[in-house]
Specification:
This protein has 87 residues and is of the alpha+beta class. The protein contains two helices and three strands.
């Protein structure tokens, strides 16, 4: 999957280092981390480094899509609303 962000500090980091392979800031079936302390509690030293984006009140997760032939398939509806469609 590819995640596109509008968070300016992260966008600037990506311009410097290129794409990052990362995980979500939560474990499966856990709530989204609202701050760096919660993320560190979830992952501990299993993560190479953390970037403190400040307090992030729980938001909708990212929308995840896939493709089947010429059809967009919504795998998880999140903050960006996308409808299944034909190409």
């Amino acid at each position: 999957a590819v995640r596109v962000t509008d968070a300016k500090p992260l966008h600037e980091l990506l311009l410097r280092v290129g794409p990052l392979l990362t995980t979500s800031a939560n474990l499966p079936n856990q709530t989204i981390s609202e701050n760096i302390k919660q993320a560190e509690e979830y992952f501990g030293d299993k993560v190479d480094f953390y970037v403190d984006g400040g307090y992030r009140p729980e938001k909708l997760p990212s929308t995840v899509i896939g493709f089947a032939d010429d059809t967009i398939v919504v795998l998880r509806q999140g903050a960006t609303r996308i409808e299944n469609s034909m190409g």
